Every structure is written in structure tokens, then in C-alpha cells.
Amino acid sequence: VMSSLSLTDDFLDGKICNNAETCDTYSFIIEPGSTGKDTIDQLYAEGIIKDASIVYYYNRIFTGYSFVAGNFDIPRKMQDMYGNIHETTLDDLLNYLSNEENANLSTFTLKFDEGDFVKHYARLIAQELDVTEKDIIDTWNSESYVRSIMEDYDFLTEDIFNSDVKYYLEGYLFPDTYEFYKNASIDDVTRKMLDRTEEIYEKYKNEFDNSDLSIHEVFTLASIVQWESGDEQDSKLVAGVFINRLNEPEVLASTVTACYASDLSKDECDEYGDTLDITQKYDPYNTYTVQGLPPGPVC
Questions:
Q1: Are 175 and 114 within 8 A, CB to CB?
Q2: Rounded distance, CA 136 to CA 125, Å?
Q3: I want to staple 38 with a disulfide (CB 3.0 to 4.6 A). Which of 6, 34, 60, 99 is the partner?
Q4: What is the DSSP letter of 7?
Q5: How many angstroms from the chain centroid is the CA of residue 159?
């Protein structure tokens, strides 16, 4: 029990870091609304404490710290009232996370539009965080990364790893207005957006389960309908037309899939229309030249 009430060697040795091999501080985020147990479970998951259950009951019975939301730079060494430097203890840590003065609450807000491309989402995020657009896209298009988070999101399935898919997470990052901490990681931002998608998925899970289409196919078709119409009533008509085409031996013939295949934005797509130079060019996403749905969502 006493051993479990000390911090991990990896943290104290500076090996638990966000973006470096070794570090003196560790960036730890407590999201608004997190319970004390949530925070302690998170400390364990991120390798800072040795035993979540023992620390949870220790705090409840003996210390009673109440944690505050914010972004904390947890030091692995602290200074006592006499000026002496010592390795951070569990009590130091719990006290540190309950002090508002230590919480960096600097945030920014981003609005992600419906029907936009995932690469444009990455551009917006990169303008606020200390990462490049390429870093974000590479993360979102990393099979190892996506597989590492799949177990937390039921709507992410093996179908997204189709070799023809351009971006694994295209269509899965829910368009909404979000508030992020200034030094959030790519993973923090990604999970916050996927958490919102999970809420929508759970709300309509019965419809997903009863559909003749797979989860990935529903997301793919929904993205086409979104781009083609955008209006709720019109969307139903457009969806009905496409579903009928999927059930017949004819191609889907969606102009927006041809535009996506040619890397054209919405405005550029409107200018082109159904011109042959994009609709007749073979591409796995171009539903004028391939049967059925494209490999993945187009927005």
C-alpha cells in the first residue's frame, strides 16, 4: 500500500513526457466536469501514479482534495517551504491539482463547418496549436494511431482501413464549435471531436443497427448527401435517390464524389458542375466510374 502511494519511477525520472524524450514537467489536462475518480483514473492511465484504487480511497479517507479543471504542468520536483528541492510526492501532486493558481485555463474556440474537408480542419487546428498541418494529417492517417483509439469508439471499424481511403478519419470528426486548451495535444483535440461523434452515434444506434448498410457505409453516404444538399428536407430526397441507385445496377453518379476525387472544394465543384473532365476520370472515389459507394466519406 505504501509503495502504491508514491509516484511512478518513469514520471519521477522524467520519462513520462508529452513531446520529448525527457522532461521536467508533464502537461496534464483535467476536463471541466471530470470527477475526482475520473482524474485519478486518468493519472493512472497516463503512467503518473501506480494504483488508481488505492490513491482514490487514500484521497477520500485521508486528504480530501478537490481537483479543479485546467491544464497543469506537473513538475517532477518541487520546493518545500524551506527552499529544499525534493521529488514530487503523491500529496504534492494532489495538492497541486486542487490549486486553481496552477491551472492554465488559456483556451481557444474553433468552429468546424459541416461538409468541409478533414484537411481544412487540420489547417484550422494547426493555426492555434504548436503543431503543423502535416503533423495532424499524419496522425489522423496513421493506422497505428487510429487502431490505438478504436476500442474507445464503437463507430470506428475495420472498414476505414480500405487501401483506397484517402484519410482514415474523414467524415468521423463531428462538425461543431469546440473549445480547446492552448497546449492541447493532437490526441486531445481528436478525442474531443470523436467524443461528440460518439454521442450522435449512440443517439441513433438503433437506426445504425437496423440499416442494410455498414456503419462505414452510413457515414460515407451521409457525407455525400450532406455535400449534395445540406438542407434537412432536401437531404431526405437526395438520400432516397442514392439508396435507390445503390439497389439497382447503375452507378451512383454523384458529382461531389468526382469533385472529391479531383481534390476540388465545394466552391470549385460548383464551378465545374458535371463536366466530363472530372466525371469521366477514373478514381476509386468517383462514383461515375465505379459501382456503389466510394471507399469512405468525402467530407
A1: yes
A2: 8
A3: 34
A4: B
A5: 18
